[in-house]
Amino acid sequence: MKKELEDAGYKVDLQYASNDVQTQVSQVVKMVDSVMQGGEAEINDTKSYDNGTEIIPSYLCDPVVVTVDNYKDMLITSGYYTEDQLK
């Protein structure tokens, strides 16, 4: 199906849900600031991020699902893309 969409002129990304980069950056800044001030980085997950050697304490941001109904707000209004870039 990816090829058919690309052949029809659509740009295709097979990732269906993602984390907002601005949300991730904001959380990283909070974590670094906390550590720099002698505290600990906030974590909200101690079970699911397994790097193959151990479980890594993590902060998981809520994924954002982009649909045909919300893509303008999520991708264009937010400044990630212009309307022309998505055509």
Automatic annotation (TrEMBL):
It comes from the Bacteria. This is Periplasmic binding protein domain-containing protein. It comes from Lacrimispora sp. BS-2.
